[in-house]
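4-diphosphocytidyl-2-C-methyl-D-erythritol kinase structure dump, as promised
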Amino acid sequence: MRISVKAPAKINLTLDVLAKRPDGYHEVEMVMTTVDLADRVDMTLREDGEITLDCSASFVPDDIRNHAYKAATLMKEKFQVRQGVHLYIDKQIPVAAGLAGGSSDAAATLRGLNQLWNLGLTRDELAKIGAEIGSDVPFCVYGGTALATGRGEQIAHLGAPAPCWVILAKPPIGVSTPDVYGNLRVAQIDNHPDTKQMLQAIATQDFSLMCQSLGNVLENVTLSLHPQVKQIKDLMIASGADGVLMSGSGPTVFALVQKEAKVHRIYNALRGFVKDVFVVRMLGAQDGEILA
Ligand SMILES: C[C@@](CO)(OP(=O)(O)O)[C@H](O)COP(=O)(O)OP(=O)(O)OC[C@H]1O[C@@H](n2ccc(N)nc2=O)[C@H](O)[C@@H]1O
Ligand SMILES: Nc1ncnc2c1ncn2[C@@H]1O[C@H](COP(=O)(O)OP(=O)(O)O)[C@@H](O)[C@H]1O
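structure tokens r here:
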């Protein structure tokens, strides 16, 4: 018996940090949406009770350090499941990119095992388990578009933003989320995004207001550590992007573009500068569907 689940990447349309919490995490307020760049997680039932994992990207861990493996272990222990599973991850999302690839693989694994092991859990119950794996996993369990608060695990669903093209560009560096948060001085943040205005832009599918409302307080930290990120931002703006922002803790930068003619110009300009460039669409309110 085998199930395959798509694990879409996410981008942050806003990312605000409000305070440092006693538990070492930060209080965040972020609007996230999924895009149609996705990993695929294949899950094959194992009667011997073992959990094993293979990944198409050799540099991604294939043991308990892999978030998908962690998800399977958590589900097996919580529900005393006798069977095991072999996980195969077809890696398409750049790693350590600010696109929550690992979190999305974990969320896809939770959703697929719920079906493969006939656990009958609700989406909310899966999201609660996801919060034990990482702050982005609950959002990835639901997919679509949402406002995430707390450390990122409290989710308020939103409607689909105005449809547009999204061009993702990742410079050849990996950025560690803990390092970026560790370098953030919350008291010195002077560019808090207007989250309410972003919510209004999404509710009214107002593309230009959405572009004006983009904001990510982690950007300045990552830009100061990695100048290439600013170069990509400047190139996207110079090539005519309607909106530009770094996603999550970076280093991926995305451009929002409404007219397809502009997409080619921006894509070609970026291709001369970075290898990892993707032209994708927002998934709006859909989620990573479960395939046969
Ligand atoms: C920055 C964001 C924004 O979407 O995404 P990515 O850039 O990773 O995609 C997330 O907050 C990343 O979430 P995630 O990658 O799940 O982080 P976690 O594993 O929970 O935490 C990794 C580390 O980041 C820091 N962290 C994360 C979330 C948060 N609200 N406050 C924090 O301080 C902590 O140091 C934590 O130990
Ligand atoms: N399934 C996975 N896919 C990618 N990276 C993973 C996965 N599981 C664990 N990791 C580890 O998590 C880190 C990157 O996680 P990822 O979600 O790709 O980054 P980000 O949260 O910035 O989007 C890397 O250190 C990688 O080794």
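Residues 60-61, 65-68, 89, 95-103, 105, 177, 248-249 surround adenosine-5'-diphosphate (ligand 2) (CB under 6 Å).
lmk if u need the other ones
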